[in-house]
Structures are given as structure tokens and as C-alpha cells.
Amino acid sequence: MLERNILDDNLTLSAYLLKQRLEGREPRIGLILGSGLNPLASEIEDAVCVPYAEVPHMNTSTAESHVGRFVCGTLGGKCVLAMQGRLHGYEGNNAQEVAYPVWLMERLGVKTLITTNAAGAINEAYQVGDFCIMSDQINFTGRNPIAAPDPANLSDRFFSMMDAFDPELRAIAHDVAAEAGVRVQEGVYLGLLGPSFETPAEIRMFRVWGADTVAMSVVEEVIAARHVGMRVLGISLVSNMACGVEGASPTGVEVLDVARTREIDFAHLVTGVVAQL
Ligand code: HPA
Hints:
By secondary structure, this protein is an alpha/beta fold. The chain has seven helices and nine strands; from the N terminus they run H-E-E-E-E-H-E-E-H-E-H-E-H-E-H-H. It has a single domain, classed as 3-Layer(aba) Sandwich (Rossmann fold). A five-stranded mixed barrel has the order 5-8-7-6-9. Strand 6, helix 3 (about 165-180) and strand 7 (about 185-190) form a beta-alpha-beta unit. Helix 2 crosses helix 5 (about 220-225). It is globular and about 50 Å long.
């Protein structure tokens, strides 16, 4: 874990260099495109692409279907900075490394973060192919990106996670989905480290805890974004029923296959929300 002042220096350099690569574009909306949802980046117009490997201090994506680059341009009439692929804990990134691009987006002026992923449904009323707007989250990774020596900024250490997912953004997402005829749920998302899928016993426990969906990302990004005051919307694609639900035994291949079938509705939903911001 880096001390805050070293982290600050790293972010300053990364932001300086990434800003130059954006050639005057000024994104206020950040998008994190999760497993199988990366193709939305091809809808971004007048785009400039910057591989993570070309941004100092950024780690790069190794997960299948995660391209590993920033794509900045126009979507829904707005300037967006998209992450075409994210950094996961299960790739060996620590919590700060997972959070780093979120803080980098904030340095570039991003005020609203839309983070997306594929998730398993714990809630038996959900169907594969549904989208789920996150109403709240349970961080079951056992890690927190703010947990670090923090001599420069102690007052920010204890901050509220009330309404972590912005109520107004959630309402917009519901309206856009209704207008587009896209089936959406709203529920509590539980994020864990992975990369093994859960056992049926774990899924039964998570249901008792109040979780509706589960996956291996998002929670650390949301904590990082709230720490710097960004508004957050989280959307999952239900790519599978969670392990043991209706006898399911999910695989990575299945997750990507389902995401491929839902690309068009996903693009409608996200582009529609961005247009309203
Ligand atoms: N569990 C964990 N992560 C996931 C799942 C799941 O069922 N589906 C997609 N990502």
C-alpha cells in the first residue's frame, strides 16, 4: 500500500500524460466496461485510445475480453472516458491498483462514474440477461483502497457510504430502461475477490445477508470514487444464476457468451443514461 503523498505524485504524473493524449477532450463522465461489455467502446465517436500500458503507474488488464485501454470520445452527445476493460483483484492487483484508474479519471475532471460488470444472480426472481441497477453494495473482498498510511489527508479517512449509488442516477437508469423496453432489476451487489466462483453454501449465506447479485469487481472502485466525491451508478448484466441457484454451476465461458447476446440492449441503456446527464 502506498502512502498518500506517493500516490498523489504518481496520479499527478499519470494525469498529466493521459491528459495530453486526450488532445483537448474534457470528459466529465467515466465508464468502466466489464466482462463481455467492452464492445460498447466501439460506439464512442471521435475516439482516442490510450492503452493502460502507456500510462505511467497504471497496471494493465489481463482478463479475457478486457482490452486494457482508455477510450475517450463522444457517446450520447457527451464526452466520456471509458475503460475498455478493468483491473481486478484476482489478477494480482492490490486494492489501490484496482482503484487507481478511478482516481485518475477524477484528476481529469470526471464527476460521474458508471461502472458495469457481469454478475451472477442470487435472487431467484432474476433472469439471465436481465440488467441490475445496484442499489447498494457489500464489500466482501476483505480489502479497501483507502486503507493505507495517510499522513496528508487524515480527515478523509472515515467517510460515509450512505447512498453510495446515487439515487438520482438510479432513477434515470430506470426511466431509460423503461423507455427502451429493457428489463431491469434493482438490488444489492456483493463483490468478492475471486477468481474461483462461489460455492452453493456461500451463495446461500450471501442471500441471507441481503445480496441479490455477486461478482468479482466494482466494490473497490465504488469506495474509491465515493472517497473523492464522484457520483456513481452501477449496472450489472445478469450473465448466469449464481452457483447452486436452480442447479447452476457457472463458467467463465458462459458469462462471456451471455454478455455477447445482450450487447445491444446494454449499449441502449448506458448511452441513454449518458445522454441524460
Ligand atoms: N460469481 C462471481 N462472479 C461472477 C459471476 C458469478 O456467478 N458471474 C459473473 N461474474
